[in-house]
Every structure is written in structure tokens, then in C-alpha cells.
Amino acid sequence: MYYDSVYKNDPDFCGKKPNNLLIKVAKKINKGGNFLDLGCGQGRNSFYMAKQKFYVTAVDYSRVAISQIEEKITKKNLKNIEAICKDIAKFKIEPNKFSVIGIFGTLHFLKKTESLKIIASAQKNIPSGGFIIITSFTANNPPSKRRKSHFKIGELKKLFEAPKFKIHHYLENTFLDSGHVGQLEPHKHGLVGIIAQKV
Ligand SMILES: C[S@@+](CC[C@H](N)C(=O)[O-])C[C@H]1O[C@@H](n2cnc3c(N)ncnc32)[C@H](O)[C@@H]1O
């Protein structure tokens, strides 16, 4: 699997810094709770939230990522992170458990129908006041075989329309990627980021 080999060769493939939108939300809540990290990768966001005193459930289908997280959990003797190796399309979100659900850079790897089901499940099962944070690729991404799974312009915003959700942040932009395994030359990505709170 692509990410297994990538993670074997680089212990911090997505960097060490947590996602900026997640930092914003953690600062806003400032009282812990349960955090669900869907497609957690090597756990930069999960470890950050564990440090902020959240109980963390980190899910990814990369065995390498999950065993790297488990090694860190043991090494640091952390009691508030659980790492689960599973396809997030098959993960059942427990109702009213998670005050924050994050899906960072992952939904564009799934079929659009699966992504929409995961979002609907997060929306249904998160309690009132809970935050859903998503970053994903948009139709402004370079053409690729995964194009169909990218969000259309404005699509994610529509999914979180009032009155059920309040959008605290929404941004669609493009950024220059200097290159990575699989696409070494510099290229642009279309990105969407959202923070939405259930009313
Ligand atoms: C770009 S990485 C982002 C990792 C992490 N969210 C972060 O921001 O550091 C995408 C991750 O999604 C995971 N992934 C993709 N499709 C998945 C699926 N169907 N179920 C579980 N994990 C998946 C990959 O294994 C990879 O770790």
C-alpha cells in the first residue's frame, strides 16, 4: 500500500506540526473531551490533542502508521490515545461520544459516495456543540484518476448549511506543493478547509 511504504521511509511524512484548524478548535474548547481522528496517518493531530488532554481515537488503514503510533504511545506511556487499524468507510462512529471529529487530507482517497456517508455519519453522531473539521482536495486539483472524489467548489459548504451547523471557517484555495513521492515535480493542489459546529 502507498502509505505503508511512504511511512516506513519517513517517520514524519506529514510533518510534526498539527493542522492549524485543529489548533483553533482545541483553543476554543479548552476543556478536553473525546477526539476522533479519521485517517490519522502517523498521528501528528492525535498526539497534539492527547497533549491538550483529549481522549483520542485514531483510525487509519495503514498498518505501518498504526504500529508507529502504538510504539510512541508505549514509549511515552500515554493512556489517552487508542489507535485502530481500519478502513474509515467501515468505522462506526459512536453516537454523542466525540466533541471533535477531524478528517485531514484523507477523504479524497475514498469514493465520493463513501466520503459523503462518513460526513453524514459524523454529522448525525456528533453531539450538539461538537466540531467537525475537514480538509480535502477540490476540483481545482491537477487532473488525476481520483478526480471524481474531489469536492466541487462550494460543495462542502453546502453540506454544512444552517440551521443544523454553524460554519466558523471555510476556505477554498490553491497551494504550491514542492513535490513528493509519486509526483516529484512542483504542482498545485486545490484545497478546502472547514470548521463546522453542530447547533
Ligand atoms: C495525507 S495522509 C494524512 C494523514 C493525517 N490525517 C495528517 O494530517 O497527518 C492521508 C491518510 O489517509 C489514510 N487513508 C486513506 N484512505 C483511508 C481509508 N479508507 N481508511 C483509513 N485510512 C485511510 C492514509 O493511510 C493516510 O494515512
Topology record:
Blueprint: H1 2-9, H2 20-29, E1 33-38, H3 44-51, E2 54-60, H4 63-76, E3 81-85, E4 100-104, H5 112-125, E5 131-137, H6 155-159, E6 165-177, E7 187-198
Parallel strand pairs: 1-2, 1-4, 2-3, 4-5
Antiparallel strand pairs: 5-7, 6-7
The structure holds S-adenosylmethionine (SAM).
In short:
The chain has 199 residues and is α/β, with parallel strands linked by helices. It is 30% helix and 28% strand. The chain has helices spanning 2-9, 20-29, 44-51, 63-76, 112-125, 155-159, and strands at 33-38, 54-60, 81-85, 100-104, 131-137, 165-177, 187-198.
Describe the structure.
The protein is an alpha/beta fold. The chain has a single domain (2-198), classed as Rossmann fold, CATH 3.40.50.150. 30% of the residues lie in helices and 28% in strands. The chain has six helices and seven strands, in the order ααβαβαββαβαββ. The protein has helices at 2-9, 20-29, 44-51, 63-76, 112-125, 155-159, and strands at 33-38, 54-60, 81-85, 100-104, 131-137, 165-177, 187-198. A seven-stranded mixed beta sheet has the order 3-2-1-4-5-7-6, with helices on one face. The mean pLDDT is 94. Bound molecules: S-adenosylmethionine (SAM).
User: How much helix, percentage-wise, in residues?
Assistant: 25-40%
Spatial strand sequence of the major β-sheet = 3-2-1-4-5-7-6
- Count of DSSP strands: 7
Total helix count? 6
CATH class: Alpha Beta
**Architecture in CATH?**
3-Layer(aba) Sandwich
Largest pleated sheet: 7 strands, mixed
Distance between the termini: 39 Å
Name the shape in a single word.
globular
* Bound ligands, each once: S-adenosylmethionine
- What structural category do the secondary elements indicate? alpha/beta
Beta content comes to 25-35%
